[in-house]
Amino acid sequence: MPATEDATAKGLEAYRIGLETADSYKGDPKTLLNALGTFQSGKSRPFLCAGMAYILLKASRESDGSYAQAGLDAAMAWLEKAQEMEPDILLINMIEAFVYIYNGRFDDARLVLDYLHQQDPQNYYLHVAEMTLCQRQGDVEKVGLWYEKAVKSAVNAPQRLRLQSGMGDFYLAQGVLDKALVMFKEAVHFDKDNYRLWHKISVAFYRQGNLEEAMRYNQRVLKQQDYPPARQLAEAIEQQMPQEKGRLGRLFGR
């Protein structure tokens, strides 16, 4: 542990960079280890404890989008250590809102967010938390409103790309496929090597029933990466395409 219990400027700088690194996590543990190293480099206990909480929050996400309760509990324990030393720093306290949101404690999250908005209503992380809360509550209209605010308060391109991808995920889950495609295509335009985004585009076309476009984008994924979900989708597309061709042939007398 670092010696100082002060929230130093160096600690804050390292903390901001570590948050960005943790936000880029896509399942590779090295990403979170890199974030931890960055948090440690700040040599400030409050920010390191908050950083640990944020790492645990990211690591707690399951493949189905739920969050492991043990991970959320551990995140809160580390967050409370940070809050004991520095109870009034927004970038530390915003983690509490996310823990409550992922726990399904929406009323508690609302109380935390209302309090933090009084400190800085233009804060990017608060806008993301509001967007996440509305997503969990299934409020499509408000999700869009908070998304627009978060895009405006984002300070760099990676933040905006993550927002677009996240909105695409939300629309895809809600079955709003046209809007999902818009978000994914905008994001992949600036991140052409992101095979996961290409796969999501393929999935959206598949769910629309546009098998040719789904196959085209799926092939692009597999050229970049041997991605198991893309291989599974390719099999599903191939199984349906002969049936679709046969149906069209009957319609046109072939």
Essential attributes:
single chain, 254 residues, mainly alpha, 0% strand, elongated
Structure at a glance:
This protein has 254 residues and is mainly alpha-helical. The chain is built from 13 helices and no strands.
Distance between termini? 74 Å
Main sheet attributes: strand count, strand direction, barrel closure: none
Q: Which stretches of 5+ consecutive residues score pLDDT under 50?
A: 246-254
Q: State the order of secondary-structure elements, H for helix, E for strand.
A: HHHHHHHHHHHHH
Number of helices: 13
Tell me the radius of gyration. Answer: 21 Å
Q: What would you call the shape?
A: elongated
The averaged pLDDT comes out at 92
Q: Label the structural class.
A: mainly alpha
Strand content: under 5%
* Count of individual beta strands: 0
Give the % helix.
Answer: over 70%
Task: Report on this structure.
With 254 residues, this protein is mainly α. It has a domain at 1-86. The chain has helices at residues 9-23, 29-41, 45-59, 69-85, 90-103, 106-119, 124-137, 140-153, 157-174, 177-189, 195-208, 211-224, 228-251.
Topology:
Layout: H1 9-23, H2 29-41, H3 45-59, H4 69-85, H5 90-103, H6 106-119, H7 124-137, H8 140-153, H9 157-174, H10 177-189, H11 195-208, H12 211-224, H13 228-251
Helix pairs in contact: 1-2, 1-3, 2-3, 3-4, 3-5, 4-5, 5-6, 5-7, 6-7, 7-8, 8-9, 9-10, 10-11, 11-12, 11-13, 12-13
